[in-house]
Amino acid sequence: MTAQPLLPKNAPFTPEEIDKLNSVVARTTPQQRAWLAGFFAGFEAAQAGGAAQPQQPAAAAKPRQPLTILYASESGNCEALAMKAKKSAQKHGLDAKVFDFADADFALLSKAKSILVFAATWGEGDPPGRAVDFYNALMSDKAPRIEGVQFAVLALGDTAYAQFCATGKKIDERLEALGGKRAFARVDLDLDYAKQAAEWTEKALAELAPADDAGTATVVHVDFKGAGFAPDDDEPQFTAENPLTGEISALVNLNGTGSTRETWHIEIAADAPGFSYLPGDAIGVLPENDPQLALEFAEAVGLGANGEVVQKLRERFDITTLSRAFIESYTKLTGRTDAAALADQKAFTEFAEDRQLIDFIETCAEKLTPEQLFSILRPLPGRLYSVASSPKAHPGEAHLLIGAVRWESHGRKRGGVSSTYFADRRRVGDPVRVYVKPNRHFRLPEDGNRPIIMIGAGTGVAPYRAFIEDRAEAGAAGKSWLIFGERNFTNDFLYQLEWQDHLAAKALSRIDVAFSRDQPEKIYVQHRLWEERADIIRWVEEGAHIYVCGDEKGMARDVDVALARVLAEAARGDDEAGRAKLKELAKAGRYQRDVY
Amino acid sequence: MSEDKRSKNEFIKESSRQLRGTIAEGLADVVTGAISEDDSQLTKFHGTYLQDDRDVRGERGKKKLEKAYSFMIRVRLPGGFTTSKQWLALDAIAGTYANHTLRLTTRQTFQFHGVIKSNMKRTMQAINAALLDTLAACGDVNRNVLACGNPFLSKAHAAAHKLAVDVSEHLLPQTGAYHEIWLDGEQVQDKTRPAKPNEEPIYGTHYLPRKFKIVIAVPPSNDIDIYAHDLGYIAIVDDAGKLAGWNVTVGGGMGMTHGDAETFPRTADLLGFCTTEQAIDVAEKIVTVQRDWGNRELRKRARLKYTIEDRGLDNFRAEVENRLGYKLGEPRPFEFTSTGDVIGWAQGSDKKWHLTLFIENGRIKDVPGWTLRSALREIAEKHPGGFLVTANQNVTIANVTAKAKPKIEAILKEHGIDIGTSLSGLRRSSMSCVSLPTCGLGLAESERFLPELLTALEDSLDRAGLKNDEIVIRMTGCPNGCARPYLAEIGLVGRNPGLYNLYLGAAFNGDRLNKLYAEDVDKAGIVRLLDPMFARYAKEREQGEHFGDFAIRAGYVKATTGGNRFHADLELVKSVA
Ligand code: SRM
Ligand SMILES: Cc1cc2nc3c(=O)[nH]c(=O)nc-3n(C[C@H](O)[C@H](O)[C@H](O)COP(=O)(O)OP(=O)(O)OC[C@H]3O[C@@H](n4cnc5c(N)ncnc54)[C@H](O)[C@@H]3O)c2cc1C
Ligand SMILES: Cc1cc2nc3c(=O)[nH]c(=O)nc-3n(C[C@H](O)[C@H](O)[C@H](O)COP(=O)(O)O)c2cc1C
Ligand code: SF4
Question: Considering only CB atoms, which chain B residues are within 8 Å of A518?
Answer without folding.
Answer: 116, 118-119
